[in-house]
Design a protein that fits this description.
binds nicotinamide-adenine-dinucleotide; Aldehyde Dehydrogenase, Chain A, domain 2; globular; about 475 residues; single chain; 2 domains; six-stranded mixed beta sheet; Aldehyde Dehydrogenase, Chain A, domain 1; alpha/beta; seven-stranded mixed beta sheet
Length: about 475
Amino acid sequence: MKIASIINGAERMDGSGETMEVRNPYSGDLVAEMTLADEKLMEEAIENSRQAFQQTMKKMPAYERSDILRRASDLLEEKQEEFAEIVAREAGKPIKHSRAEIKRSIQVLRFSSELSKHMTGEVLPMDAALRGDNRMGMVKRVPMGVIGAITPFNFPLNLSLHKIAPAIAAGNTVIFKPAEKTPVSAYMLAKLFQEAGLPDGVLNLVLSTGKVAGSTLVPHKDVPKITFTGSLTVGKIIRDTAGFKKVTMELGSNSPNIVFEDADIDDAIERLVNAAFGYSGQVCVSAQRIYVQEDVYDEFLKKYVEATNNLEIGDPLGEETDFGPMIDEDAAKRIQEWVEEARNEGATIETGGDRKGTMMYPTIITNVKKDMKVVKEEAFAPIVTLMPFKTEEEAVANTNDSIYGLQAGVFTKDISRAYRVADNLEMGGVWINESSVYRQDNYPYGGVKLSGLGREGVKYAMEEMTEMKFIGVRL
Ligand code: NAD
Protein backbone atom coordinates (compact mmCIF):
# COMPACT_ATOMS: atom_id res chain seq x y z
CA MET A 1 0.00 0.00 0.00
CA LYS A 2 1.29 3.44 -0.95
CA ILE A 3 0.02 6.49 0.88
CA ALA A 4 0.58 10.22 0.60
CA SER A 5 -0.68 13.57 1.83
CA ILE A 6 -4.20 14.57 0.81
CA ILE A 7 -4.50 18.27 0.05
CA ASN A 8 -7.61 19.90 -1.36
CA GLY A 9 -8.99 16.42 -2.00
CA ALA A 10 -6.02 15.26 -4.09
CA GLU A 11 -3.39 12.71 -3.17
CA ARG A 12 0.06 14.21 -3.47
CA MET A 13 2.82 11.82 -4.37
CA ASP A 14 5.12 14.74 -5.26
CA GLY A 15 6.14 16.01 -1.80
CA SER A 16 9.80 15.85 -0.90
CA GLY A 17 10.44 12.80 -3.06
CA GLU A 18 11.42 11.00 0.13
CA THR A 19 9.52 7.99 1.36
CA MET A 20 9.26 6.24 4.71
CA GLU A 21 8.28 2.67 5.45
CA VAL A 22 5.64 1.76 8.00
CA ARG A 23 6.36 -1.66 9.50
CA ASN A 24 4.40 -3.91 11.84
CA PRO A 25 6.35 -3.65 15.12
CA TYR A 26 5.67 -7.32 15.93
CA SER A 27 6.39 -9.11 12.65
CA GLY A 28 8.45 -6.49 10.85
CA ASP A 29 6.12 -6.87 7.81
CA LEU A 30 5.74 -3.86 5.55
CA VAL A 31 2.36 -2.20 6.17
CA ALA A 32 2.72 0.80 3.86
CA GLU A 33 5.12 3.15 2.20
CA MET A 34 4.43 6.83 2.60
CA THR A 35 5.59 9.77 0.57
CA LEU A 36 6.72 12.58 2.84
CA ALA A 37 5.59 16.15 2.34
CA ASP A 38 8.23 18.89 2.42
CA GLU A 39 7.95 22.50 3.61
CA LYS A 40 6.63 23.64 0.25
CA LEU A 41 3.75 21.17 0.29
CA MET A 42 2.97 22.08 3.89
CA GLU A 43 2.81 25.75 2.88
CA GLU A 44 0.48 24.87 0.03
CA ALA A 45 -1.74 22.88 2.39
CA ILE A 46 -1.96 25.77 4.84
CA GLU A 47 -2.88 28.25 2.10
CA ASN A 48 -5.54 25.85 0.85
CA SER A 49 -6.93 25.39 4.38
CA ARG A 50 -7.06 29.17 4.79
CA GLN A 51 -9.08 29.50 1.60
CA ALA A 52 -11.35 26.59 2.54
CA PHE A 53 -12.07 28.33 5.83
CA GLN A 54 -12.98 31.61 4.14
CA GLN A 55 -14.90 30.14 1.23
CA THR A 56 -16.46 26.98 2.65
CA MET A 57 -16.47 26.59 6.40
CA LYS A 58 -17.47 30.14 7.26
CA LYS A 59 -20.61 29.63 5.20
CA MET A 60 -21.45 26.10 6.23
CA PRO A 61 -24.43 25.94 8.61
CA ALA A 62 -24.18 23.92 11.81
CA TYR A 63 -26.72 21.32 10.68
CA GLU A 64 -24.53 20.51 7.69
CA ARG A 65 -21.40 20.14 9.82
CA SER A 66 -23.41 17.94 12.12
CA ASP A 67 -24.65 15.76 9.23
CA ILE A 68 -21.14 15.27 7.87
CA LEU A 69 -19.82 14.23 11.28
CA ARG A 70 -22.74 11.87 11.77
CA ARG A 71 -22.13 10.28 8.36
CA ALA A 72 -18.44 9.93 9.22
CA SER A 73 -19.35 8.12 12.45
CA ASP A 74 -21.72 5.77 10.60
CA LEU A 75 -19.07 5.01 7.99
CA LEU A 76 -16.49 4.33 10.70
CA GLU A 77 -18.94 1.97 12.36
CA GLU A 78 -19.33 0.08 9.07
CA LYS A 79 -15.56 -0.09 8.57
CA GLN A 80 -14.57 -0.64 12.19
CA GLU A 81 -12.92 -4.00 11.66
CA GLU A 82 -10.80 -2.66 8.78
CA PHE A 83 -9.65 0.27 10.95
CA ALA A 84 -9.00 -1.95 13.99
CA GLU A 85 -6.84 -4.24 11.90
CA ILE A 86 -4.75 -1.40 10.52
CA VAL A 87 -4.20 0.06 14.01
CA ALA A 88 -3.13 -3.39 15.21
CA ARG A 89 -0.72 -3.71 12.28
CA GLU A 90 0.83 -0.24 12.21
CA ALA A 91 0.92 0.41 15.98
CA GLY A 92 1.31 -3.21 17.19
CA LYS A 93 -1.70 -2.71 19.44
CA PRO A 94 -3.52 -5.93 20.42
CA ILE A 95 -6.64 -6.26 18.30
CA LYS A 96 -8.95 -6.26 21.35
CA HIS A 97 -7.58 -2.86 22.35
CA SER A 98 -7.59 -1.61 18.75
CA ARG A 99 -11.27 -2.47 18.47
CA ALA A 100 -11.97 -0.59 21.70
CA GLU A 101 -10.14 2.44 20.28
CA ILE A 102 -12.30 2.44 17.14
CA LYS A 103 -15.48 2.18 19.22
CA ARG A 104 -14.40 5.25 21.16
CA SER A 105 -13.55 7.07 17.93
CA ILE A 106 -17.09 6.47 16.65
CA GLN A 107 -18.39 8.07 19.84
CA VAL A 108 -16.09 11.08 19.48
CA LEU A 109 -17.57 11.69 16.03
CA ARG A 110 -21.12 11.32 17.42
CA PHE A 111 -20.48 13.71 20.32
CA SER A 112 -19.03 16.19 17.83
CA SER A 113 -22.01 15.81 15.51
CA GLU A 114 -24.38 16.51 18.40
CA LEU A 115 -22.39 19.37 19.90
CA SER A 116 -21.94 21.18 16.59
CA LYS A 117 -25.61 22.15 17.01
CA HIS A 118 -25.07 23.49 20.51
CA MET A 119 -22.33 26.04 20.17
CA THR A 120 -24.24 28.58 22.21
CA GLY A 121 -23.12 31.92 23.57
CA GLU A 122 -24.77 34.17 26.15
CA VAL A 123 -26.76 37.36 26.49
CA LEU A 124 -25.25 39.76 29.03
CA PRO A 125 -27.10 41.95 31.53
CA MET A 126 -25.54 45.14 30.18
CA ASP A 127 -27.47 47.33 32.61
CA ALA A 128 -25.54 45.78 35.47
CA ALA A 129 -22.76 48.25 34.72
CA LEU A 130 -22.81 52.03 34.98
CA ARG A 131 -23.81 53.58 31.64
CA GLY A 132 -25.23 50.23 30.53
CA ASP A 133 -28.90 51.26 30.30
CA ASN A 134 -30.43 50.84 26.86
CA ARG A 135 -27.69 48.59 25.70
CA MET A 136 -27.72 44.95 24.69
CA GLY A 137 -24.72 42.70 24.71
CA MET A 138 -24.15 39.18 23.53
CA VAL A 139 -21.24 36.79 23.32
CA LYS A 140 -20.96 34.44 20.37
CA ARG A 141 -18.51 31.61 19.90
CA VAL A 142 -16.77 31.84 16.55
CA PRO A 143 -14.33 29.46 14.85
CA MET A 144 -10.66 30.41 14.80
CA GLY A 145 -9.72 29.39 11.26
CA VAL A 146 -6.98 26.89 10.41
CA ILE A 147 -6.21 24.52 13.28
CA GLY A 148 -2.86 22.69 13.22
CA ALA A 149 -3.36 19.22 14.74
CA ILE A 150 -0.22 17.23 15.58
CA THR A 151 -0.79 13.74 16.97
CA PRO A 152 1.13 10.81 18.52
CA PHE A 153 1.34 7.14 17.58
CA ASN A 154 -0.33 5.53 20.57
CA PHE A 155 -4.02 6.15 19.84
CA PRO A 156 -3.60 7.04 16.19
CA LEU A 157 -7.29 7.24 15.43
CA ASN A 158 -8.96 8.37 18.62
CA LEU A 159 -6.50 11.08 19.63
CA SER A 160 -6.53 12.46 16.08
CA LEU A 161 -10.32 12.56 16.15
CA HIS A 162 -10.24 14.36 19.49
CA LYS A 163 -8.80 17.27 17.52
CA ILE A 164 -10.29 16.93 14.04
CA ALA A 165 -13.93 16.26 14.96
CA PRO A 166 -14.37 19.15 17.46
CA ALA A 167 -12.49 21.46 15.07
CA ILE A 168 -14.95 20.68 12.28
CA ALA A 169 -17.92 20.78 14.66
CA ALA A 170 -16.89 24.32 15.61
CA GLY A 171 -16.50 25.40 11.96
CA ASN A 172 -12.72 25.38 11.53
CA THR A 173 -10.49 23.81 8.92
CA VAL A 174 -7.65 21.47 9.90
CA ILE A 175 -4.10 20.63 8.93
CA PHE A 176 -3.68 17.10 10.25
CA LYS A 177 -0.06 15.98 10.89
CA PRO A 178 -0.14 12.44 12.27
CA ALA A 179 2.79 10.54 13.81
CA GLU A 180 5.26 9.11 11.29
CA LYS A 181 4.90 5.64 12.85
CA THR A 182 1.13 5.46 12.33
CA PRO A 183 0.08 7.34 9.20
CA VAL A 184 -2.07 4.61 7.65
CA SER A 185 -5.12 4.97 9.89
CA ALA A 186 -4.74 8.75 9.43
CA TYR A 187 -4.81 8.35 5.66
CA MET A 188 -7.85 6.08 5.89
CA LEU A 189 -9.56 8.63 8.13
CA ALA A 190 -9.00 11.45 5.63
CA LYS A 191 -10.52 9.22 2.92
CA LEU A 192 -13.45 8.42 5.18
CA PHE A 193 -14.20 12.10 5.68
CA GLN A 194 -14.18 12.57 1.90
CA GLU A 195 -16.71 9.77 1.60
CA ALA A 196 -18.81 11.39 4.33
CA GLY A 197 -19.06 14.51 2.17
CA LEU A 198 -16.57 16.83 3.86
CA PRO A 199 -15.66 19.45 1.23
CA ASP A 200 -12.12 19.42 -0.14
CA GLY A 201 -9.62 21.49 1.82
CA VAL A 202 -11.48 21.36 5.13
CA LEU A 203 -9.27 18.53 6.33
CA ASN A 204 -5.81 18.52 4.77
CA LEU A 205 -3.67 15.55 5.70
CA VAL A 206 0.05 16.33 5.61
CA LEU A 207 2.31 13.31 6.07
CA SER A 208 5.57 14.88 7.10
CA THR A 209 8.32 14.58 9.65
CA GLY A 210 8.07 16.44 12.94
CA LYS A 211 10.85 18.70 11.68
CA VAL A 212 8.77 19.96 8.74
CA ALA A 213 5.75 20.49 10.99
CA GLY A 214 7.90 22.27 13.55
CA SER A 215 9.49 24.64 11.08
CA THR A 216 6.45 25.37 8.90
CA LEU A 217 3.11 24.61 10.52
CA VAL A 218 3.81 25.62 14.12
CA PRO A 219 5.05 29.19 13.54
CA HIS A 220 2.80 29.90 10.51
CA LYS A 221 1.00 33.24 10.58
CA ASP A 222 -2.18 31.80 9.07
CA VAL A 223 -2.52 29.07 11.71
CA PRO A 224 -3.94 30.70 14.85
CA LYS A 225 -4.04 27.52 16.92
CA ILE A 226 -1.90 24.43 17.42
CA THR A 227 -3.33 21.44 19.23
CA PHE A 228 -0.64 18.94 20.11
CA THR A 229 -0.61 15.56 21.80
CA GLY A 230 2.78 14.00 22.39
CA SER A 231 5.90 14.09 24.51
CA LEU A 232 7.01 16.84 26.88
CA THR A 233 10.23 17.27 24.89
CA VAL A 234 8.40 18.08 21.65
CA GLY A 235 5.70 20.02 23.54
CA LYS A 236 8.36 22.39 24.89
CA ILE A 237 9.78 22.99 21.41
CA ILE A 238 6.31 23.72 20.02
CA ARG A 239 5.47 26.05 22.91
CA ASP A 240 8.68 27.96 22.25
CA THR A 241 8.13 28.32 18.49
CA ALA A 242 4.36 28.88 18.42
CA GLY A 243 4.83 32.50 19.40
CA PHE A 244 1.63 34.39 20.02
CA LYS A 245 -0.82 31.70 18.99
CA LYS A 246 -2.99 29.56 21.20
CA VAL A 247 -1.77 26.07 22.00
CA THR A 248 -3.35 23.03 23.58
CA MET A 249 -0.82 20.54 24.92
CA GLU A 250 -1.68 17.00 25.94
CA LEU A 251 1.63 15.67 27.24
CA GLY A 252 2.95 12.83 29.34
CA SER A 253 2.92 11.65 32.93
CA ASN A 254 4.17 9.03 35.38
CA SER A 255 0.65 8.32 36.56
CA PRO A 256 0.07 7.35 40.18
CA ASN A 257 -2.50 5.02 41.73
CA ILE A 258 -3.12 4.70 45.46
CA VAL A 259 -4.50 1.52 47.00
CA PHE A 260 -5.75 1.93 50.60
CA GLU A 261 -6.05 -1.01 52.99
CA ASP A 262 -9.87 -0.99 52.81
CA ALA A 263 -9.97 -1.24 49.00
CA ASP A 264 -11.39 -4.23 47.12
CA ILE A 265 -7.93 -5.64 46.41
CA ASP A 266 -8.94 -8.13 43.73
CA ASP A 267 -10.84 -5.49 41.81
CA ALA A 268 -7.93 -3.02 42.11
CA ILE A 269 -5.52 -5.66 40.83
CA GLU A 270 -7.63 -6.47 37.80
CA ARG A 271 -7.83 -2.79 36.89
CA LEU A 272 -4.19 -2.03 37.62
CA VAL A 273 -2.86 -4.90 35.51
CA ASN A 274 -4.62 -3.38 32.53
CA ALA A 275 -3.60 0.12 33.63
CA ALA A 276 0.10 -0.75 33.68
CA PHE A 277 0.34 -3.14 30.74
CA GLY A 278 -2.49 -2.26 28.33
CA TYR A 279 -0.87 -1.40 24.99
CA SER A 280 2.48 -2.15 26.62
CA GLY A 281 2.21 0.85 28.91
CA GLN A 282 2.37 3.22 25.94
CA VAL A 283 -0.53 5.26 27.23
CA CYS A 284 -0.15 8.75 28.68
CA VAL A 285 -2.10 7.78 31.82
CA SER A 286 -0.60 4.31 32.15
CA ALA A 287 -0.10 3.29 35.81
CA GLN A 288 3.60 3.79 36.55
CA ARG A 289 3.60 4.36 40.31
CA ILE A 290 1.36 2.27 42.57
CA TYR A 291 1.33 3.23 46.24
CA VAL A 292 -0.09 0.42 48.41
CA GLN A 293 -0.90 0.79 52.11
CA GLU A 294 1.51 -1.37 54.10
CA ASP A 295 -1.05 -3.71 55.75
CA VAL A 296 -2.13 -5.04 52.35
CA TYR A 297 1.15 -4.58 50.48
CA ASP A 298 2.33 -8.21 50.60
CA GLU A 299 -1.05 -9.58 49.54
CA PHE A 300 -1.29 -7.00 46.75
CA LEU A 301 2.22 -7.72 45.44
CA LYS A 302 1.71 -11.51 45.38
CA LYS A 303 -1.62 -11.33 43.57
CA TYR A 304 -0.46 -8.56 41.24
CA VAL A 305 2.53 -10.58 40.04
CA GLU A 306 0.30 -13.64 39.53
CA ALA A 307 -2.27 -11.67 37.52
CA THR A 308 0.46 -10.06 35.41
CA ASN A 309 2.01 -13.44 34.65
CA ASN A 310 -1.37 -14.58 33.32
CA LEU A 311 -1.39 -12.04 30.50
CA GLU A 312 -1.54 -13.61 27.06
CA ILE A 313 1.53 -12.31 25.24
CA GLY A 314 1.96 -12.48 21.48
CA ASP A 315 0.89 -11.31 18.05
CA PRO A 316 -1.29 -8.19 18.23
CA LEU A 317 -3.52 -9.72 15.57
CA GLY A 318 -4.26 -12.75 17.80
CA GLU A 319 -7.82 -12.75 19.17
CA GLU A 320 -6.66 -13.73 22.66
CA THR A 321 -3.61 -11.46 22.85
CA ASP A 322 -3.56 -9.07 25.83
CA PHE A 323 -0.03 -7.83 25.42
CA GLY A 324 2.15 -7.16 22.37
CA PRO A 325 5.30 -5.32 21.29
CA MET A 326 6.41 -1.76 21.85
CA ILE A 327 6.33 0.66 18.94
CA ASP A 328 9.95 -0.01 17.96
CA GLU A 329 13.14 -1.62 19.17
CA ASP A 330 14.68 1.67 20.33
CA ALA A 331 11.76 2.22 22.72
CA ALA A 332 12.14 -1.31 24.09
CA LYS A 333 15.94 -0.97 24.46
CA ARG A 334 15.58 2.36 26.24
CA ILE A 335 13.22 0.99 28.87
CA GLN A 336 15.31 -2.12 29.39
CA GLU A 337 18.24 0.16 30.19
CA TRP A 338 16.11 2.03 32.73
CA VAL A 339 15.15 -1.27 34.38
CA GLU A 340 18.80 -2.36 34.52
CA GLU A 341 19.78 0.98 36.00
CA ALA A 342 17.12 0.59 38.71
CA ARG A 343 18.31 -2.97 39.40
CA ASN A 344 21.89 -1.73 39.78
CA GLU A 345 20.67 0.91 42.21
CA GLY A 346 19.04 -1.72 44.42
CA ALA A 347 15.56 -2.26 42.98
CA THR A 348 13.99 -5.73 42.77
CA ILE A 349 12.47 -6.99 39.53
CA GLU A 350 9.48 -9.08 40.69
CA THR A 351 8.61 -10.24 37.18
CA GLY A 352 9.70 -9.38 33.63
CA GLY A 353 12.77 -7.27 32.94
CA ASP A 354 13.55 -9.19 29.76
CA ARG A 355 13.33 -8.07 26.18
CA LYS A 356 13.24 -9.75 22.80
CA GLY A 357 13.40 -7.32 19.87
CA THR A 358 10.47 -4.94 20.19
CA MET A 359 8.90 -7.04 22.95
CA MET A 360 9.61 -5.80 26.46
CA TYR A 361 7.95 -8.21 28.89
CA PRO A 362 5.58 -6.88 31.58
CA THR A 363 7.81 -5.73 34.42
CA ILE A 364 6.98 -5.09 38.07
CA ILE A 365 9.63 -3.30 40.11
CA THR A 366 9.83 -2.93 43.92
CA ASN A 367 12.33 -1.52 46.42
CA VAL A 368 12.58 1.61 44.31
CA LYS A 369 13.72 5.08 45.33
CA LYS A 370 11.86 8.18 44.29
CA ASP A 371 14.67 9.60 42.21
CA MET A 372 15.08 6.50 40.02
CA LYS A 373 14.14 7.08 36.38
CA VAL A 374 11.53 4.31 36.54
CA VAL A 375 9.67 6.33 39.18
CA LYS A 376 10.45 9.92 38.32
CA GLU A 377 10.41 10.15 34.53
CA GLU A 378 7.65 9.13 32.15
CA ALA A 379 8.37 5.48 31.28
CA PHE A 380 5.75 5.09 28.54
CA ALA A 381 6.52 1.38 28.61
CA PRO A 382 5.30 -1.86 30.23
CA ILE A 383 6.90 -1.27 33.60
CA VAL A 384 5.30 -0.40 36.91
CA THR A 385 6.74 0.41 40.33
CA LEU A 386 5.12 -0.62 43.63
CA MET A 387 5.72 1.37 46.81
CA PRO A 388 4.32 0.79 50.30
CA PHE A 389 3.02 3.68 52.42
CA LYS A 390 1.77 4.16 55.99
CA THR A 391 -0.50 7.20 56.08
CA GLU A 392 -2.83 9.05 53.77
CA GLU A 393 -0.68 12.19 54.08
CA GLU A 394 2.39 10.24 52.98
CA ALA A 395 0.55 8.77 49.99
CA VAL A 396 -0.67 12.20 48.89
CA ALA A 397 2.75 13.79 49.32
CA ASN A 398 4.49 11.03 47.34
CA THR A 399 1.89 11.17 44.60
CA ASN A 400 2.27 14.92 44.22
CA ASP A 401 6.06 14.68 44.15
CA SER A 402 6.22 14.77 40.35
CA ILE A 403 6.67 17.28 37.54
CA TYR A 404 3.56 15.73 35.97
CA GLY A 405 -0.13 15.84 36.93
CA LEU A 406 -2.43 14.18 34.42
CA GLN A 407 -4.71 11.61 35.99
CA ALA A 408 -4.64 9.44 39.14
CA GLY A 409 -6.54 6.45 40.49
CA VAL A 410 -7.53 6.02 44.15
CA PHE A 411 -8.91 2.77 45.56
CA THR A 412 -10.79 2.96 48.87
CA LYS A 413 -14.25 2.28 50.31
CA ASP A 414 -14.08 5.28 52.65
CA ILE A 415 -16.03 8.02 50.86
CA SER A 416 -14.70 10.88 53.00
CA ARG A 417 -11.14 9.82 52.38
CA ALA A 418 -11.85 9.40 48.66
CA TYR A 419 -13.00 13.01 48.30
CA ARG A 420 -10.30 14.34 50.60
CA VAL A 421 -7.54 12.63 48.63
CA ALA A 422 -9.08 13.67 45.30
CA ASP A 423 -9.06 17.28 46.49
CA ASN A 424 -5.46 17.08 47.63
CA LEU A 425 -3.98 15.53 44.50
CA GLU A 426 -2.38 17.89 41.98
CA MET A 427 -3.95 16.35 38.91
CA GLY A 428 -6.09 17.23 35.91
CA GLY A 429 -8.35 14.31 36.85
CA VAL A 430 -8.82 11.81 39.68
CA TRP A 431 -10.72 8.53 39.51
CA ILE A 432 -12.06 6.84 42.64
CA ASN A 433 -12.17 3.04 42.51
CA GLU A 434 -10.94 3.18 38.95
CA SER A 435 -7.40 3.27 37.63
CA SER A 436 -5.55 6.25 36.17
CA VAL A 437 -5.80 4.77 32.69
CA TYR A 438 -9.57 4.96 32.38
CA ARG A 439 -10.87 7.67 30.11
CA GLN A 440 -14.20 8.57 28.57
CA ASP A 441 -14.39 10.96 25.69
CA ASN A 442 -16.91 13.42 27.12
CA TYR A 443 -15.22 14.80 30.20
CA PRO A 444 -12.49 17.46 30.39
CA TYR A 445 -9.23 15.61 29.99
CA GLY A 446 -5.80 17.16 30.32
CA GLY A 447 -3.05 17.86 32.77
CA VAL A 448 -1.64 20.34 35.23
CA LYS A 449 2.08 21.01 35.81
CA LEU A 450 4.14 19.71 32.85
CA SER A 451 1.38 17.32 31.71
CA GLY A 452 -0.17 19.97 29.57
CA LEU A 453 -2.15 23.07 28.83
CA GLY A 454 -5.87 23.14 28.12
CA ARG A 455 -8.39 20.33 27.94
CA GLU A 456 -9.82 17.90 25.42
CA GLY A 457 -13.11 16.00 25.51
CA VAL A 458 -15.33 17.17 22.66
CA LYS A 459 -17.14 20.06 24.38
CA TYR A 460 -13.93 21.36 25.96
CA ALA A 461 -11.88 21.00 22.80
CA MET A 462 -14.53 23.02 20.96
CA GLU A 463 -14.18 25.77 23.55
CA GLU A 464 -10.45 25.80 22.93
CA MET A 465 -10.91 25.97 19.16
CA THR A 466 -13.27 28.93 19.19
CA GLU A 467 -12.95 32.55 20.20
CA MET A 468 -15.51 34.55 22.14
CA LYS A 469 -16.82 37.48 20.17
CA PHE A 470 -18.73 40.24 21.93
CA ILE A 471 -21.39 42.15 20.01
CA GLY A 472 -23.00 45.18 21.67
CA VAL A 473 -25.98 47.27 20.59
CA ARG A 474 -26.97 50.75 21.76
CA LEU A 475 -30.75 50.74 21.58
P1 NAD B 1 6.26 12.64 20.07
O1 NAD B 1 6.25 13.87 20.90
O2 NAD B 1 7.54 12.02 19.74
O3 NAD B 1 5.53 12.94 18.67
C1 NAD B 1 4.23 13.46 18.61
C2 NAD B 1 4.03 14.18 17.29
O4 NAD B 1 4.87 15.34 17.27
C3 NAD B 1 4.39 13.37 16.05
O5 NAD B 1 3.41 13.60 15.06
C4 NAD B 1 5.73 13.96 15.65
O6 NAD B 1 6.00 13.84 14.28
C5 NAD B 1 5.54 15.41 16.01
N1 NAD B 1 6.78 16.18 16.17
C6 NAD B 1 8.02 15.74 16.49
N2 NAD B 1 8.88 16.78 16.53
C7 NAD B 1 8.18 17.89 16.26
C8 NAD B 1 8.51 19.27 16.18
N3 NAD B 1 9.75 19.72 16.40
N4 NAD B 1 7.54 20.15 15.88
C9 NAD B 1 6.28 19.73 15.66
N5 NAD B 1 5.91 18.44 15.73
C10 NAD B 1 6.85 17.52 16.02
O7 NAD B 1 5.28 11.63 20.81
P2 NAD B 1 4.95 10.09 20.50
O8 NAD B 1 6.15 9.27 20.79
O9 NAD B 1 4.27 9.95 19.20
O10 NAD B 1 3.84 9.84 21.64
C11 NAD B 1 4.18 9.55 22.94
C12 NAD B 1 4.00 10.73 23.86
O11 NAD B 1 2.71 11.28 23.75
C13 NAD B 1 4.14 10.34 25.33
O12 NAD B 1 4.92 11.29 26.00
C14 NAD B 1 2.71 10.37 25.84
O13 NAD B 1 2.56 10.60 27.20
C15 NAD B 1 2.13 11.49 25.03
N6 NAD B 1 0.67 11.37 24.98
C16 NAD B 1 -0.11 12.23 25.71
C17 NAD B 1 -1.48 12.10 25.70
C18 NAD B 1 -2.38 13.03 26.47
O14 NAD B 1 -3.56 13.09 26.16
N7 NAD B 1 -1.89 13.76 27.45
C19 NAD B 1 -2.06 11.09 24.95
C20 NAD B 1 -1.24 10.24 24.22
C21 NAD B 1 0.12 10.39 24.24
